[in-house]
Amino acid sequence: MKRVLLPLALLTTIGTVTLSAGDQFAMSDADRAMYAEMLENNPADIFVEEGGEMFEEELGGEAALAKFLGISEKELPKYIAGFPRYIAKLGNVVGIDQVLQAMQVEQGQEKSKLKSGKMFSMLAYVKSLANDEVINIDVNADEHIKAAYALGEKTYMTPRGGRGLACNSCHSADIVGQVLRTQPLPDLGDNNVAGTWPAYRMTKSSLRTTQRRFQGCMKNALLAVIPLGSKEMNALEVYVNKLAADKKKTMAIPGLKR
Question: Residue 229, by phi and psi: left (phi above 0), alpha (psi -120 to 50) or beta?
Fold first, then answer.
């Protein structure tokens, strides 16, 4: 498969700052201290708490979710760590937020938009139920998830847009560790995208989801933005989550990101 390298004009260096592939971003000592403090007191925790209250009061909590999914409450944490997955009653490979939407509709409620703060908070809470579980997405579980994985790989690898970039342009083994916009480009498996989003974004001062972050990357790269919850976006999340599963990463929600 043809490899697309980032244009040199997009890559930057940062003086005498030493960066490793594991560093999340470059920052001053003061900002680094603030980041360390936020790791101890993540601002996203309040959103997760609020999401839990809404999930319990409006949708019936974990018991209702387990019933909707056709599993026991005991199985719920491990099952959550395997999303996106094919849900037969929805007829598609979906994310947990789309399951929550379906529960709202089933219970006669107004469906929350996938980009709403309410949905971000509920999603963060539900995903946090799986914290410390190993990400276990099974891309060979059925024909539907196999097809989603294949589409996700194609979406990840295919150059598009005015700059001819793909997701892989910034995250292939040849590029990881180079600095773009003051940030070392991460390996998405090692970086555990699957297990650390929803996360609090310091630059946005708000909670964001995996797919919302994908959209931000697309916008910055001058790519047509793929809609949240679309077949292609869910497939892309499947592909990226498999990268984390291959690294045996665990769920750790909410994350903290630049």
Answer: left
Task: With beta carbons less than 8 A apart as the criterion, state whether 123 and 73 touch.
Answer: no
| CA nearest to 12, candidates 221, 171, 182 | 182
User: Measuring CA to CA, how many Å separate 126 from each of 76, 96, 209, 235, 254?
Assistant: 10, 8, 13, 20, 11
Weakest-pLDDT range from 3-12, 68-77, 235-244, 246-255: 3-12
**Those residues with Cβ within 8 angstroms of residue 96's Cβ, 6 or more apart along the chain or in another chain:** 80, 83, 84, 123, 126, 127
Residue-wise pLDDT tens digits, 180-233: 666 777 778 888 999 999 999 888 889 999 999 999 999 988 899 999 999 999
Q: Which two tokens stand for residue 102?
A: 């379906």
Scanning the chain, the segments in alpha helix (DSSP H) are 29-40, 44-59, 61-69, 76-80, 96-106, 117-128, 143-157, 167-171, 193-196, 210-220, 231-246
Q: Alpha-carbon torsion 22, 24, 26, 29, what sign? A: negative
Residue with tokens 């790519």: 223
Q: Is the dihedral of CA 126, 132, 137, 141 positive or negative?
A: negative
pTM equals 0.85
